[in-house]
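Late entry, evening session. Most of the bench is empty. Finally got around to the prediction I had been postponing all week. Sequence below, unchanged from the version circulated by S.P.
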Amino acid sequence: CGRDNSPEVAYCQGCGNPMVSGQVPPPPVYGGYAAPQPGYGPTNYAGIGARFLALLIDGAIIGIPIGIVSFVLSTMMAVRVIHRTSRDTSFNPGMAADTIGTFIAGFGIIMIISALLSWAYFAMMESSGWQGTVGKKIMGIKVTDLYGSRITLGRATIRLVVKSFLSSWLMIGYIMAFFTQRKQSLHDMIAGTLVLSGQPYSPMGYAQPQQYPQQPVYPQQPPAYVPPQQFSTCPYCGGALQPNARFCSNCGHNL
């Protein structure tokens, strides 16, 4: 109602409503990656087009170092195999097994290096202050948790693993973003993340101040108007009252 009250009062002396802090109350906390109740969290979800372009940019950026490493290691393996086979043209089972082992070890090293580079690029950058990769930064989007906050490195790692092994299978995980309410891909749903645009937003679900209609102003007091009885102390709890208080600041009773 707009009436000034002392800081220690529990109920407004003008309208009787409980006095609460002026700060916006936090949303309810849920364990693990469970989604909050409907109506909580940001709504400025990033568009599918912006996310696709960011994915292309990131693919080009991370693909260059991985391609260089793969080319160098593959060349080294080929040179070694050619050098060893050129010394003995006859069939040698031991040499054949050694050649196969060389290729397996080489491709294993390539996979490990590629995984480490991808983890450093995606997981570490999405959990950093940037909240996204270079591609996402260029497109003005970021990765957050369900409340729009920065995610941890562990959650970013889970998101990357699911994206690499599940979402990329026939692109089904990515296609899910077209049909989910929050435009979440499979890896977003499992990791409990959102991809948001850089536009400002107002969190939903927070209590909004209730609007009360203004009291009508009478040119004169209505007939048979009886002024309310004034109390210095509350007749219900005995607490002290301010002048012209309509509700007790201690128990909230209508005076």
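Two things to note before I forget:
Helices lie at 48-87, 93-126, 134-139, 153-167, 172-175, 186-191.
The chain is about 40% helix and 5% strand.
Will write this up properly tomorrow.
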